[in-house]
Amino acid sequence: MFLAGTYIKNPTVLAPLAGWTDAVFRRICKAFGVGLIFTEMASADALVRDSRRTIDLVRFSPQERPIGIQLFGAEPETLARAAEIVSELRPDFIDINFGCPAKKVVRRGGGAALLRDLNLIEAIGRATVAATDIPVTAKLRSGWQEPVVVEACRRLQGTGIKAVTIHPRSQKMGFKGQSDWQQIAAVKQAISIPVIGNGDITCARDAKRMLDETGCDLVMVGRAARGNPWIFAQIIAYLQDGTIMPPPTFAERLSLCIHHLEEQERAYGAAVAVYTMRKHIACYLKGGENITRLRQQVFSKNNLQEVRADLLSYLKQLQQTAVTA
Ligand SMILES: Cc1cc2nc3c(=O)[nH]c(=O)nc-3n(C[C@H](O)[C@H](O)[C@H](O)COP(=O)(O)O)c2cc1C
Fold it and tell me: Are strands 136-143 and 12-14 parallel, antiparallel or unpaired?
């Protein structure tokens, strides 16, 4: 399928997840086939103030394409200037965040706070589209409290925005409760640009159900991809011909975890990676049997080589048990 002229080889999308979807994790998801990727949100104010430093947050490698860079901010002029700045990197899309519920973002009028002022959303869409030749997309929650997403998307379409992602929870809900997929269906019916559905997809069947129930064009997965990038290959296979791929074995998850650790070391150095990997390791280990000791060992260490050695030795044990069983 084509999204604003860019070929997307399947309808799966990696969600922007601040603190998680760095270039290393994005490349891993790409290896599992994900069709479209977004960077985590970058502050438009910071880009305008100190573009050299902030732009490093959204740099990407050619193998991650197609990719969108996400921006958050509160003023049309700032977002427009930030879009101009990141256009230097030639992403396939520039995405505007109208959904972040975090206090530090909404306090300054950005993210989901913008859903309280549809005129401002429209002004931001118009200014950003005018500032760049790169297709601009937008990601929205359903509203601040009451749903306004259908009207917001209608107006954004009018500004020249090329696609929208809908995470149908209000700001007030945070990440609690269920996302209301009917809001995705309502947006799809109201506008003609592509709609990316998002919210609570945890397996291939959920993804198909969202596509079927809402009519959305692509599906975006966030939390369920952490420690589990297999979900993209599983969704792609299921959508292709109904194949249910077996879940990865614990040994496969450990091997990928070690690879992820090594890639982070290459990208950031051992001293940083040993900390930034902890949350990923916790996700890869989730659900493994008899891992209490391994987890304690790994989380008590500050030396990446020791952490790697612990994971490798557990993996070897697993593989030996599998051979002798
Ligand atoms: C830790 C975390 C960080 C997030 N960071 C961003 C972000 O930078 N930009 C954004 O638009 N949404 C962000 N989100 C929201 C997700 O992109 C997504 O909309 C939400 O998690 C619902 O999808 P899911 O149920 O598949 O996780 C974040 C969510 C989480 C849990």
Answer: unpaired
